[in-house]
Amino acid sequence: MDPQRLKGNFAQVATHGMDVAEFFYADLFQRNPQYRSLFPASMARQQQVLLEALVQIVSLVDDPERLVPYVQELGRAHGGFGVTAQHYPEVGTSLVATLRYFSGDDWSAELEKDWGEAYGVVADVMVNAAGQN
Ligand code: HEM
After folding, report:
1. How far is the CA of 114 from the centre of ligand 1 (A)?
2. Which residue has a Cα nearest atom 38 of ligand 1?
3. Distance between CA atoms of 100 and 105, rounded to whole angstroms?
4. Where are the beta strands (DSSP E) in 4-58?
């Protein structure tokens, strides 16, 4: 995984602002309509906090000493939201689909691999932390 490539790609995607989070949840609920009821009726705040969390995670992607505690805390919170390990791969699929969409012609097999690996590590840490509630 190449942290600089991942950061560069995210910086470019993030110029699309809230459209990114909107696209992500639309994609997630289209593929998995049963996930909609986990979330509040109004998604405005959720879109905002998701984007902020992604910014934070990407900024710390090469700083595991700070990334891990942040992600553990997030994982524990998700245990309380009714999120289980089974949800994580589907969310990863929609996240990668969203990044691919906003990257346009800049998307590459390398980026697909970077994001898959980074998401896999974050998901593992979140799931493990939730199990330790
Ligand atoms: C990299 C993975 C993820 C990130 C960065 C992320 C980010 C966040 C953040 C920042 C919050 C707000 C936390 C708070 O209010 O304390 C949140 C809430 C939530 N997330 Fe995630 N999340 C991730 C994975 C997932 C997965 C796999 C699911 C399963 C569908 C999920 C469903 C939810 C739900 C249901 C809430 C609570 C909504 C509410 O009632 O306000 N998240 N997420």
Report:
1. 21
2. 39
3. 9
4. none
Residue 2 CA, ligand 1 centroid: distance in Å: 25
d(CA 20, CA 86): 23
pLDDT tens for the 133 residues of the chain, in order:
899 999 999 999 999 999 999 999 999 999 999 999 999 999 999 999 999 999 999 999 999 999 999 999 999 999 999 999 999 999 999 999 999 999 999 999 999 999 999 999 999 999 999 986 5
From 20, 35, 50, 124, the mutation candidate for ligand 1 (largest count of ligand atoms within 8 A of CB) is 50
Does CATH number 1.10.10.10 belong to domain 3-131? no
Residue 130's closest CA among 69, 76, 77? 76
How far, CA to CA in Å, does 112 sit from each of 18, 19, 106?
A: 22, 20, 11
Indicate whether residue 26 lines ligand 1 (CB < 6 A).
no
